[in-house]
Design a protein that fits this description.
- This protein is mostly beta strands and 226 residues long.
- The protein has a single domain (5-211), classed as outer membrane lipoprotein receptor (LolB), chain A (Clam).
- 12% of the residues lie in helices and 41% in strands.
- It contains 3 helices and 12 strands.
- The protein has a 12-stranded mixed sheet.
- The N and C termini lie close together (9 Å).
Length: 226
């Protein structure tokens, strides 16, 4: 089962986060900069992150909600374990990325350096966050209300993604934690990730980020998108 193609809208965002340190920062209002730097400090201090997630996609005649558990470990390792409405797994150990749904006859893999479909830019936030370098026109999103009262909405355009994403929204807590990410596509699609019950710097075994294809399952190497 290939990864849904709508997730490719987040791919370049993750790449931007990975190379942000090499990009010049633009001039942004001081109050926005203060909040973005608070986010940077929060995630740069973390080594692991565990959270429940809700993923929603609307667009191209599709309205879908999925949920499960996310584990991230520095550097660049992540595991998205979907439970509802169908079990499936997206995992990378920093070298190889895998996608597999139990019961499928194929497991798909690709080198992480060629990964063109990231589940969330949070995979690249740990240890290297610099939001003001990632987003062009970083500002408060005054036209969008946070889902949690007291949170703050930031918006910006990921550098180099003008042809894919119109805007990315970050719902940020006052202490600099990201509770929600919303990616608005140029095709009017919307991909949303909400993170719940986050646990920071908990022990996560390296084995959680390793995948061994079940016996009899064919391994297909190449891109993970449709």
């Amino acid at each position: 089962m290939p990864i849904p193609s709508h997730l490719s809208s987040l791919a370049g965002l993750g790449v931007c986060l990975a190379i942000a340190a090499n990009s010049p920062a633009s001039s942004i209002p001081q109050d926005v900069l203060t909040l973005s730097q608070r986010v940077d400090r929060h995630y740069n201090a973390l080594h692991t992150l565990q959270a429940e997630f809700i993923e929603k996609y609307r667009g191209n005649g599709i309205d879908r909600t999925e949920s499960g558990t996310l584990w991230i470990k520095r550097p660049g390792r992540m595991r998205w374990e979907y439970r509802e409405p169908r079990a499936k797994l997206f995992i990378t150990d920093g070298k190889t990325a895998w996608f597999y749904a139990p019961g499928d006859q194929q497991a798909r893999s690709t080198p992480s350096r060629k990964l063109d479909d990231l589940r969330s830019p949070l995979a690249y936030l740990l240890g290297k966050a610099k939001l003001e370098r990632v987003f062009e026109g970083l500002a408060f999103a005054t036209d969008v209300q946070p889902q949690t009262p007291g949170n703050i909405m930031l918006q910006g355009k990921p550098r180099g993604l003008a042809g894919h994403l119109a805007r990315v929204l970050l719902e940020v807590t006052p202490d600099g934690r990201i509770d929600r990410i919303v990616a608005e596509g140029q095709d009017d699609s919307v991909t949303e990730y909400r993170f719940l019950a986050s646990k920071e710097d908990v022990a996560i075994a390296d084995e959680r980020f390793r995948f061994v294809p079940p016996a009899g399952v064919e391994v297909v190497t190449g891109g993970l998108d449709q």
